[in-house]
Amino acid sequence: MEREKQLRFCKICKNQKFDIKQGIICGLTEQKATFDLECAQFEEDAKLKDMPVADPLPNTLQKRKW
To answer: Under a CB-based contact definition with an 8 Å cutoff, are residues 32 and 22 in contact?
Structure first.
């Protein structure tokens, strides 16, 4: 499974942990996700699931000429 699809689970999991070099990792294994279809250790965090997701920065910053 692609990392972006794995992160759909990881971003709302109670077991997630953030590593400054790797991003979101598993707090149980201390590694990036390796599952293919579903994670056996996945525990949904209702608070994280209900949080709004921020939109990425608009492209206007990239197009601006300094």
So the answer is: yes
